[in-house]
Amino acid sequence: MNILVVGGAGYIGSHTAKTLKKAGHIPVVFDNLSTGHRWAVRWGPLVEADLADKSAILQAIRDYQIEAVIHFAAHAYVGESMQYPARYFRNNVANMLNLLEALHESNIQHMVFSSSCTTYGIPERVPIREDFPQLAISPYGESKLMGEKMLKWFGECYGMGWVALRYFNASGADPEGEIGEVHDPETHLIPLVIDAALGRRPPVKIFGTDYPTPDGTAIRDYIHVMDLADAHLRALQYLLEGGQSTAFNLGTGHGNSVREVIAAVERVGGCRVPAEAAPRRAGDPPALVADPSKAHKVLGWEARYQDINQVVETAWRFVESRKR
Ligand code: UDP
After folding, report:
1. Cβ–ligand 1 contact at 204 (below 6 Å)
2. 188 pocket-lining for ligand 1 (C-beta < 6 Å)
3. 45 DSSP 8-state letter
4. Contact 248/300 with Cβ under 8 angstroms?
5. Which residue minimizes the CA distance to atom 12 of ligand 1?
6. What's the number of domains the chain is made of?
7. Count of helix runs (H) and strand runs (E) in the chain
């Protein structure tokens, strides 16, 4: 099938494009390259255009006879969203609405959407199930929740089939080393720790050492990007087979603290990572861990990378190969 991969030049989108290609599909990447990379589009054509331009979406759908859509394109920094909320609602909500309208006008009935565990805000407990309250605490989280709601209503009103995938902490890189995580500026823990280990950045700041967790640092569920890519393929298949529209958590089901991530990088790299305690980052909950059992039951999906060391190994190889 020809699948429009909106935001397919980005981190998770490019890994999914590779997985789609391996499964025999043609990923047609639609990306404005604002944060994505031309070099990451390797498994199908690139339409360089912006979601603000609905006619460009309609044209891409026509030109490539698109049959289904996976939508990754979004701004995705909690901190930035607190500074520039309008930017987040414009891109993540208004532009997504253009996409949804274009799909409806083109009679496309299948849509997989990148949502986020951020939609849960500060959960009362972990692991988090899909039916927990979604009480986002940032414009970013709220914008993803609004995306889910738009999908729900396009489903109710027009019969569009959708799956929202709520990612926990996407991490790692293609084990074949072709693509990986490159953000500018980089704010994510694992690439920052690897760069610090390689002496390419100042010591890592540990944001918060007084959380109510065993070692005092925040706990996240680090889910490998190839596992995420696999879940998109399964979600698409599920929709094509007539599966009901719904949302799934995508995580490993267990968490690692910031200190455990640093220790994993030290093990993989065989070196010390310079790190220093710093205040908590605004809006960071103490622990976010998925209950991924629904995705397992319904999609037959399970994280293959269960061990933080394996996740870090793939990330390390990619970071090293790029900077040599
Ligand atoms: N973190 C940290 N130092 C950093 C970057 C992140 O201590 O330089 C912590 C952050 O507070 C969070 C975890 O690492 O608890 C993961 O953060 P990241 O930004 O990678 O992902 P997020 O959880 O914000 O999506």
Report:
1. yes
2. yes
3. -
4. no
5. 218
6. 2
7. 11, 14
Which atom of ligand 1 is closest in space to residue 78's alpha carbon? 24
Q: What is the pTM for the complete model shown?
A: 0.98
Which structural domain, as residue segments, surrounds residue 242?
2-171+222-250
- Alpha-carbon span 140 to 284, nearest angstrom: 13
Q: Residue 60: which pLDDT band, with cuts at 50, 70 and 90?
A: very high
Give the nearest ligand 1 atom to 192 CA. 8
Does residue 187's CB lie within 6 angstroms of at least one atom of ligand 1?
yes
DSSP string, 104-165: HHTT--EEEEEEEGGGG-S-SSSSBPTTS-----SHHHHHHHHHHHHHHHHHHHH--EEEEE
Ligand 1 test: best mutation among 219, 258, 260, most atoms within 8 Å of CB?
Answer: 258
> Are 156 and 27 within one domain?
yes
Q: Report pLDDT digits (tens) over 240-263.
A: 999 999 999 999 999 999 999 999
Q: What CATH number does the domain containing 264 carry?
A: 3.90.25.10
pLDDT given at position 324: 56
Which residue of the set 11, 88, 120, 140 is catalytic?
140
CA distance 189 to 207: 10
In a domain, 88, yes or no: yes
Same domain, yes or no: 210 and 153:
no
3-state secondary structure of 256: strand
Instruction: Specify if 297 maps to a domain.
Output: no
Same domain, residue pair 113 and 215:
no
> Are 130 and 199 contained in the same domain?
no
Q: Are residues 150 and 258 in the same domain?
A: no
Is 140 an active-site residue?
Answer: yes
Whether residue 133 lies inside any domain: the answer is: yes
